[in-house]
Amino acid sequence: MLNMKKLEEQERSILQKAEENGLECDYLFATSFARYKRQIRTLVALDAVVGEAIDNGDVLVSKEYVKGKGNLQIHPAIAQFDRTTDSANKTVATLLKIFKTWGVNDAEDEIDPLMDIINGGDADGDGE
Question: pTM (2 decimals)?
Fold first, then answer.
């Protein structure tokens, strides 16, 4: 389950890093970061629905295309979760390129939450 409080803390951390480097007013950063926040909130909402579908064994659903003839397909929320995750990953890549273009570097002893998530961390900034 995605922890919204931790995600909001990390959003603030990323925004602070952007402000420290003069990026908060950059159009590409501002629009990409707003899109990323929206994608994360969408994923949080979808995560609950997907979790419930999996817990209830409703991963596959039947959809009628021809009257009386059902076709099995993956639960729509799972498919949407996957699409939104893919879009969020692309947005993160864009944000990282923006940070790199502006020469934003992390201190050696500080773990950037965005990089921690990308590198498979648990999104609480401790890398575990």
Answer: 0.72
